[in-house]
Amino acid sequence: MAEAGRRFGVGYALMPKKQASFIQLSLVDMLKERGIDLVQIDMGRPLADQGPFDCVIHKMYGEEWRKQLEEFRAGNPSACIVDHPDDIRRLHNRISMLQVVEELKVEKDAEEEEKEGEETFGIPKQMVVYEEERLVDRSLWEERSLKFPVIAKPLVADGSAKSHKMSLVFDEVALGKLKPPIVLQEFVNHGGVIFKVYVVGKRVVCVKRKSLPDYSDEKLGTLQGSMSFSQISNLTAHVKDHEKYYKSMNLEEGEMPPQKFIAKIARRLRKAMNLDLFNFDVIRDVRVGNRYLVIDINYFPGYAKMPSYESVLTDFFCDMAKEKEKNAIVGPEALLSDKKIRKVVSNSCCSQGDDGALPVSPLKREEENPVIPV
């Protein structure tokens, strides 16, 4: 909570669609009660001329905006920027975003001996293709141990409409129609459930949503072409198998991952990526019941879909206010060192990746999910 008589100002720079979903009256009112004010940043004026802001949150792009953030930081060394563009950049590429998970796995294997029955994590098999002729290069597929079906995703994950055009591909004919650069990711049967893990600083909320249906080997032998994720999520009349599947599936049957396990992954991702506002999508590999795969990581996701998002975000900003007060007590000299400035800035930064790699059904806000401190 901000100190008595001193309000904590949070400037926000968001695209209209993101602003409409995130800046809800319920959030604004809860923050005001705790001494925190949300203030819209005027993108038509230099950021350095606005404020004063104790914290800046944003989901914007471009070198001009980056330059404005640097100028703001130079003039306001005690303010925090959530998050820094350098740290977000790796999430704009669907290969580099998941490399961090592989790095964590190597680190885990080196430090901890896996026990039988213990939960494990990783990523699906995947590869990036830059040339059209390489799409159907069987030697490349064999090298990566990939087989149909595969999920085709644009390499760039910048939050644009184009970056969300994904499809489930069943054969080489459909594959040959794709336009590189593109990421091909193995499809893994996962019980039709995806776990979306929201990270807000040291707080973690895990929810489950309906996802793509599983496919038996017999069924795969009859499928051809490809299906866009919009086709699958819309469940059009001619996709009767999917429609029956969704109607018969009970989301409550999907067992949640262990909280400590998810919190540990979240804590390590937060530290490795140096980010405070992100989410990651996880599926459970039905072939190995205790193995989980991270399939996507997004910066500044749709938090309004998260249960109790107002209180979680309010607590996060209160943490920011307390941290600034603590640094002020330490003294301005301490804030002048590059190390401490970097610490303040990098605990908060910018991007525009949006929600999930798989089509999901709307989350009911009344669904209760625990907030896990990490």
TrEMBL record:
Matching InterPro entries: ATP-grasp (IPR011761), Inositol_tetrakis-P_1-kinase (IPR008656), InsP(3)kin_ATP-grasp (IPR040464), ITPK1_N (IPR041429)
Binding-site residues, Mg(2+) 2: D296, N298
Catalytic activity: 1D-myo-inositol 3,4,5,6-tetrakisphosphate + ATP = 1D-myo-inositol 1,3,4,5,6-pentakisphosphate + ADP + H(+)
Cofactor (UniProt): Mg(2+)
GO terms under cellular component: cytoplasm
Highest taxon above the source species: Eukaryota
Single annotated GO MF: ATP binding
Cofactor binding: number and manner: Binds 2 magnesium ions per subunit.
Enzyme kind, highest EC tier: transferase
Binding site for 1D-myo-inositol 1,3,4-trisphosphate: K18, K59, H164, K196, N298, G302
E.C. designation(s): 2.7.1.134
Binding site for Mg(2+) 1: D281, D296
Keywords: ATP-binding, Kinase, Magnesium, Metal-binding, Nucleotide-binding, Transferase
One Gene Ontology term from the biological process aspect of the record: inositol trisphosphate metabolic process
Disordered: annotated span: 349-374
Residues binding ATP, per UniProt: 94, 153, 185-196, 211
ATP-grasp domain sequence ranges: 113-325
Pfam families: Ins134_P3_kin (PF05770), Ins134_P3_kin_N (PF17927)
Described purpose of this protein according to its UniProt entry: Kinase that can phosphorylate various inositol polyphosphate such as Ins(3,4,5,6)P4 or Ins(1,3,4)P3.
Family: Belongs to the ITPK1 family.
Subunit field text: Monomer.
Name recorded for this polypeptide: Inositol-tetrakisphosphate 1-kinase
Organism of derivation: Kalanchoe fedtschenkoi (Lavender scallops)
